[in-house]
Amino acid sequence: MKKLLSIVLSLVMVMTVFTGCGDKKSENSSFFKEAAKMQEIKSGTADVEFNLNAKGINLSKDKEIPKQLKNGDNVILKVKMEVTAESETKQAMKISAQYGITEYAEVTTVIFDGSKLYVNVGSLADFIKSIDENIGKQVETALGQLGAGRYISLDLKQVCQALNVKIPDMTNSTEEMQKLTVKVMETLDKSFADIQGKDGDDYTLTVGSDNADKVAADLVKFCEDGSLKEIYTALMDWYVDIFGADTEIGKQFAEMKKESTAQLDEAVKEVKENKDNIVSTLKDAKVNVVAKLNITGDEGKRVCKLSVDSGEIKDTDSDMTGSITMTSNVKEENVSIKELIPSEGVVDITAMVNMMLSQFGAAAGAQGTGLY
User: Which helix or strand (DSSP H or E) is residue 196 part of?
Assistant: First the structure.
């Protein structure tokens, strides 16, 4: 099952990363060109739903899978995210899950209001209890010891100051990420031109057994021209710029960038050497993943519909089959998160977190001087 899920999830991730909405279509557009225009949308609402359905006689015997997810030889799981974005720095996201034949249950709600972060830990504990009563109670006890209420809040600005980290300018960093995203989409559009298409008003991206040779060839092309390394390098540079090159976190990202270069070269080499294996894997698993993107409406009132359907994929190492679907609907409009910010049952853990960070830093310093 792990191999089956890794195949399906990898394909879905590739086809949905950075995707979004844009303006009216033009005849010379494409899936990735339309997706690049998502950066124009600053506020609105969105709902995203993932559905997983796997089937196989081994699933009922797998002890690693919670029994609540099983229905005989079937494993069914749905995850839904409901997002309200007032601006780049004021956003809220409610995460819910439905497993087996139960109804949707809230996992948690995360709200970011400027520099203040709110997390619904009460619903998280309740959800964990519905999966595993003992672990859920342990989480509740831990939260109680922390003095946490239904919600906890954290002032990220104060935490950054305690860590002596440069407070990121979210406006500038968001603009830089938007530029990076557009660049990524342009690169993907160029590299994967052979597997893009159009179906009515929908722009499509297809990865399957029928076009496996094109998929493999485009993937090799994407790796050969250095696009993968260029994208990763640009992303690491973005993180370094956010936190500051002289800060500890910034230095860590710079080191990650340096260390990963050789690994990326090895990954590119492996893709090129295993082109035939990529083709045979797609064909043997009977993969037919199709992503569709449709955008309508004028600026300020745009509506985006994105869907990804993996079709039924066979795990080549077992009798199991599975499928994943994803649907996303985005509506551009002026919205506010004010009513979503909790006013009762909120415990601010900023002081406690800063104290823990201070103690950790003192212990690390003492260890460095040989006192421990």
Answer: strand 196-199
